[in-house]
């Protein structure tokens, strides 16, 4: 496939490409241009040329294009989902959901954008005061490989609806779906240069987007360390930043919880997308009075899981997306095993069998009795491994839950109104769920506190994050 710059499908300036592999089979799924700084400069130029006309369009005219694109994406869901599964690894039903999720986001901002307006006041002594909302200009988006379509939607939906143009860099191991989605937006009427996609390495393409002074805002999703580098690179030009970084979401299961529902909550919350979700359940704190029963039922449920190629019928969990990610998961589990930190009651290794030999598979893993100071709790595990500890009650659970550098999501499972009131107040997180985890509709602001990031995406306020206010005071 080609990059999308100024509405044209282009090769990279270097003419080089890189292969994209299917993580379930190792086969090459496709290739993408190996972009570099020059390609980013060309994309910034195209985005700059497109900006005045795009910003001058009425919000309704911009929104219509997003709506047409969403319709087309839904119509082509089957092909897009197959491409997403092939390059990313997730089971096909999750890919279908993700593509629909992308369309949902575009439709949401289509519906919202006409409501983007400033303020007016008649202030005695100052005359008529208007506060206008202006788009920022060229915005940059740098995204990871775990949920490429959804995260692309979060970034482009609000930015384009608000009248900005954009240069977007997908991750190296999952760029193809993003490129195809950008093509569909072009076919739906998005003018050339409004959305440009440059593929290639983070150290060149990503860094140029972060530091080029022509880019007025950078929205980054990825690891904490990379986010810090992006912030440093963006600082000299005083750019606006949204940083959606890592998470280590705690799930607290109280003694009055519906155990069956909470077990299913773990299954979806931890093993969806092979555990490679920023807001996956990454630490489980369960009340000691129900811990044995909970672990027994959870283990039985985990053992029913079918691991395999995401395209195969009945597969509940696919492979990890990339070798580095798999190695990190293997290392952290091996280290815990060597230090005798907890007991592996399910998984803990790759599945056996000819069909798994070429893929990046790891079994869904449960580790019980994990000491509170274990790296299994302090590090973000971006894979299908769940450390579990029994706790004496809500006080201890909340203390442990908040004892993390991360603060992305958290959930509490209980039927007690006082527990809900206290936990939702005290949990340090950008999003708190009660008796559910992981679900994020486009209407809900999303982002983290502490090391999990800065700013919010999604929701109506995201439109404001992609605009700036200009105050005008008129005295006649
Ligand atoms: P990553 O930080 O390695 O890469 C993210 C993107 O940044 C990629 O496109 C990469 O090429 C690019 N990049 C790498 N170095 C760069 C640099 N120096 N300058 C600019 N760009 C650079 O992250 P990943 O491994 O792709 O994704 C997994 C991480 O993302 C996890 O920590 C996960 O929790 C986090 N994540 C967060 C959210 C959220 O919304 N908070 C959502 C999904 C994933």
Automatic annotation (TrEMBL):
Keywords: Oxidoreductase. This is Betaine-aldehyde dehydrogenase. One of its GO terms (molecular function) is betaine-aldehyde dehydrogenase (NAD+) activity. Pfam families: Aldedh. Its EC number is 1.2.1.8. It comes from the Archaea. Belongs to the aldehyde dehydrogenase family. It comes from Methanoculleus marisnigri (strain ATCC 35101 / DSM 1498 / JR1). The lineage of its organism: Archaea, Methanobacteriati, Methanobacteriota, Stenosarchaea group, Methanomicrobia. It is an enzyme of class 1 (oxidoreductase). Residues 14-472 form the Aldehyde dehydrogenase domain. Homotetramer.
């Amino acid at each position: 496939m080609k990059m999308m710059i100024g509405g044209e499908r282009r090769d990279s300036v270097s003419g080089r490409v890189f292969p994209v592999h299917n993580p379930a089979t190792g086969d090459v799924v496709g290739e993408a241009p190996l972009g570099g700084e020059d390609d980013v400069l060309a994309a910034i130029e195209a985005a700059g040329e497109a900006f005045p006309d795009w910003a001058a369009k009425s919000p309704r005219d911009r929104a219509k294009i997003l709506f047409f694109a969403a319709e087309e994406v839904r119509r082509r869901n089957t092909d897009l989902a197959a491409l997403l599964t092939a390059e990313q690894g997730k089971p096909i039903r999750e890919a279908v959901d993700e593509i629909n999720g992308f369309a949902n986001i575009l439709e949401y901002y289509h519906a919202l954008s006409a409501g983007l307006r400033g303020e007016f006041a008649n202030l005695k002594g100052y005359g008529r005061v208007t506060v206008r909302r202006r788009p920022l200009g060229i915005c940059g988006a740098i995204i990871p490989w775990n949920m490429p379509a959804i995260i692309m939607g979060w970034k482009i939906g609000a930015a384009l609806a608000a009248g900005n143009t954009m240069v977007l860099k997908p991750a190296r191991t999952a760029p193809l779906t993003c490129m195809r989605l950008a093509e569909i937006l072009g076919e739906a009427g998005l003018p050339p240069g409004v959305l440009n996609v440059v593929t290639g390495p983070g150290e060149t393409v990503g860094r140029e987007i972060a530091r080029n002074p022509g880019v007025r805002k950078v929205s980054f999703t990825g690891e904490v360390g990379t986010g810090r580098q992006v912030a440093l690179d963006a600082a000299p030009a005083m750019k606006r930043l949204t940083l959606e970084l890592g998470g280590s979401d705690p799930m607290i299961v109280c003694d009055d919880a519906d155990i069956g529902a909470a077990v299913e909550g773990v299954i979806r919350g931890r093993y969806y997308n092979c555990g490679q979700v920023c807001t996956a359940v990454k630490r489980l704190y369960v009340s000691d009075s129900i811990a044995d029963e909970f672990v027994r039922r959870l283990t039985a449920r985990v053992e029913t899981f079918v691991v395999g190629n995401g395209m195969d019928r009945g597969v509940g969990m696919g492979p990890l997306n990339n070798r580095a990610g798999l190695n990190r998961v293997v290392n952290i589990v091996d280290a815990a095993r060597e230090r005798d930190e907890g007991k592996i009651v399910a998984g803990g290794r790759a599945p056996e069998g000819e069909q798994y030999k070429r893929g990046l598979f790891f079994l869904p893993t449960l580790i019980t009795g994990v000491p509170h100071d274990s790296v299994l709790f302090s590090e973000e595990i971006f894979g299908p491994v769940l450390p579990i500890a029994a706790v004496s009650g809500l006080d201890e659970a909340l203390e442990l839950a908040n004892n993390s550098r991360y603060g992305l999501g958290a959930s509490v499972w209980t039927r007690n109104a006082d527990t809900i009131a206290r936990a939702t107040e005290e949990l340090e997180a950008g999003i708190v769920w009660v008796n559910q985890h992981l679900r994020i509709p486009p209407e809900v602001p999303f982002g983290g506190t502490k090391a999990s990031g800065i700013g919010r995406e999604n929701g109506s306020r995201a439109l404001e994050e992609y605009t700036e206010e200009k105050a005008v005071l008129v005295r006649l």
